Amino acid sequence: MEEQEKTRTRLIDSAIKLFRRQGYDGTGLTQILNDSGAPKGSFYYHFPEGKEQLADETIRRAGANVATLVDNCFNECDSFEKGVLTASSTIAAWFKKSGYAEGCPVSSILLGTMSSSDTLRKSSELVLKSWCDVIAKHARRHGFDSQSAELGEAMILGLEGAWVLSRATQSIKPFEVAAAMVLAMIRK
Questions:
Q1: Distance of CA 18 to CAs 22, 28, 92, 143, 164, Å?
Q2: Average of pLDDT values for 89-104?
Q3: Is the pTM of this model over 0.85?
Q4: Domain span at residue 121?
Q5: Gyration radius (Cα) of the chain, Å
């Protein structure tokens, strides 16, 4: 049973990497199988509903990973402002290290499937909301109760836009601008 779970994890990890780089439509099952080293038969054992089911799992797993990353960035900081800067710069540094190739794990799937898969749209919605909620939690922790939801949403809007602009410009500057926009919203 343990080997089956390892195979499933390898398939999801490969899908996360490939979807981030190439999007949903640009990534085929054969490529995922080759990258993961999993036999073809195991794919349908773990994901009997096919690529959409794998993408759903990918959204959830990658989404949880990003939520944890953002939460950890804010936990390390003694102010909301520092948390915004740390989370933005951490994501920017990771994106730059990938050669501006590995974009947002959710939007890379959502943009290619939103008109054809309500399942993936709903999973994306839940994950993006969870990211907003993580940031809002830290906004409340630092005394921005009345603005917490707005700050959480603004930061995710900024980061998603930064991923796109950063990829196009091959620069981390959009992440700096996104952080500055959120910080400009703060009212004490």
A1: 6, 9, 19, 40, 17
A2: 94
A3: yes
A4: 55-185
A5: 17
